[in-house]
């Protein structure tokens, strides 16, 4: 059984930075994507970024490009989301999720797959950005 546990959320002022971590326990497989979704108050959950295990290719939502960076430490089964230049509209619960790729790349996963359809899902960590 794979479990994903997020950490690193908190309260930060606009313009500040936070780093989220997601630790995966269990075997995800040889070819998987892992990344982050978020859900802001009153809004639908959306994909933020994901990374593929085989080549570390990444994909970002337009809303976070240039501000967020996703990286992985495979030895620690951990992915990190470095969030810089945070804005109040980044306030949300951030969820880690992973799936075996089934041959699809990161852009396909982030643009086409909903959080509920990912193979494995974390419980989330709250990020609050004050203005």
Structure description:
The chain has about 130 residues and is mostly beta strands. It contains one helix and eleven strands. The strands form two sheets. Strands 2, 4, 5, 6, 9, 10 and 11 form a seven-stranded mixed sheet that branches. It has a four-stranded antiparallel sheet with strand order 1-3-8-7, with no helix packed on it. A hairpin with a 5-residue loop joins strand 5 (about 45-50) and strand 6 (about 60). It is globular and about 40 Å long. It starts with a strand and ends with a strand.
Give the % helix. Answer: under 10%
Radius of gyration: 14 Å
Count of individual beta strands: 11
- Uncertain runs: none
Question: What distinguishing features does this structure have?
Answer:
1 helix, 49% strand, 4-stranded antiparallel sheet, single chain, globular, 7-stranded mixed sheet, mainly beta, 131 residues
